[in-house]
Amino acid sequence: MLIKRLIRIVVSILPVIIIVGLLYVAFFVKPQTGEAVLKPYPIVRRDRIYGVTLPTPTTIWAVGSHGKILRSDDSGKSWVLQASPTLAHLQDIAAWDEKRACVVGNEGIILTTTDGGKRWKKVKTPLDDQEAKTGSGEKGLDVQVSSSMSEEMAKETASQTPKKLIAVKTFPDGSAWAVGEMGAVLCSKDEGRTWERRMKAEDVGWNDCSFIEQNGLIVGEFGRIMRTDDGGQTWTAVKSPVESSLMGVAFRDKEHGVAVGLQGVVLVTEDGGKRWTQAPAATSEHLFSVIWDGGQWVAVGDKGVMFKGDPAGLNWSGGRITDLDTSWYTKVRKIDDRYYCSGDRLAVLKEGVIEFFDRKI
């Protein structure tokens, strides 16, 4: 009987206990805000980070799939996702300094910033001569057929608009060069605000460019190479020893350069790009990017490989950076003693140890 009486008492006062508890929570328990809210990490494993640039020893900019623009001001310890005006895949980024940079990508898109990436602005992609004559094509691929424009001309105009810009390089005088599909070779002299074509449109993709003073090189599909010695005013086709696509090119000085490509192709020049010879193959993996790091050549590519070459570019050694990674890398950049690689993943290599910046979700 005593137990039943206690149960009735507890049941009778339970609502009062609940109400008192709710009132306590309402008046005395304050919700946590700010740091307690979990924010998504800026870089996740599914991201593709195609381009990276290093305007200062601690500043990193990287761009990739679906318009993603990332920035770090502490050598990659933390990252900020910057607001992007596009969802197009971004292929490359280059910077004049930590405030001014230029991005290129799919759909012929060009973006610029002058405030460290707080605001990114779309820049108009220039049209070729045929498009300018027709007065059409300002919307790139969205070319409309009108009564004054035949269907054949409309198709030709659309095909001549760059569908993808693949590489961009910036230079201390405020100039920039970008290359891509449909023979796109674009130049800016005003920090990326305006651009003009420097080569007639054609059905070929240019994959990379390199300049040192007035000497310039462009490489692309079918082993094609173009060179200039007047700052890009005129271009000359150069005989290539290969017919496979060349993906990256770099100068060591005005005379010496290296180009890399599919199936591990390495080409070298000793006369500013007039003549090229093929170096002995060190790998059959595709090579996508090459730089001169001040003491040696460095190339990266498919299956997570990195190869290093002597100053002549004839002797190369290397392999996969780590057995735990088979990513493909489209760009390699160096600052101090660190190599930053972008492509399938974004990573940094220091003293032979690789660190990845992405996280699984």
CATH architecture: 7 Propeller
In CATH's first tier, which class applies? Mainly Beta
Q: Structural class of the secondary elements?
A: mainly beta
Give the tally of β-strands: 28
The total domain count is 1
Poorly predicted ranges (pLDDT <50, ≥5 residues)? 128-160
Measured as a percent range, the helix fraction is 10-25%
Global geometry: globular
Fraction in beta strands: 35-45%
> What's the tally of helices?
3
Nutshell version of this structure?
The protein has helices at 2-28, 129-134, 151-160; strands at residues 51-53, 60-63, 69-72, 80-82, 90-95, 101-105, 110-113, 121-123, 165-170, 176-180, 185-188, 196-197, 206-212, 215-220, 225-228, 236-238, 246-251, 257-261, 266-269, 277-278, 287-292, 297-301, 305-309, 316-320, 329-335, 338-343, 347-350, 353-356.
Task: Write out key terms for the chains shown.
361 residues; mainly beta; Methylamine Dehydrogenase, Chain H; 4-stranded antiparallel β-sheet; 35% strand
What does this structure look like?
The chain is mainly beta and 361 residues long. It has a single domain (45-356), classed as YVTN repeat-like/Quinoprotein amine dehydrogenase (Methylamine Dehydrogenase, Chain H, 7 Propeller). The chain is 12% helix and 35% strand. It contains three helices and 28 strands. The protein has helices at 2-28, 129-134, 151-160; strands spanning 51-53, 60-63, 69-72, 80-82, 90-95, 101-105, 110-113, 121-123, 165-170, 176-180, 185-188, 196-197, 206-212, 215-220, 225-228, 236-238, 246-251, 257-261, 266-269, 277-278, 287-292, 297-301, 305-309, 316-320, 329-335, 338-343, 347-350, 353-356. The protein has a four-stranded antiparallel β-sheet with strand order 1-2-3-4, with no helix packed on it. It has a four-stranded antiparallel β-sheet with strand order 5-6-7-8, with no helix packed on it. Strand 2 and strand 3 form a beta hairpin. The longest helix has 27 residues, at 2-28. The protein is globular. Residues 128-160 have low confidence and may be disordered.
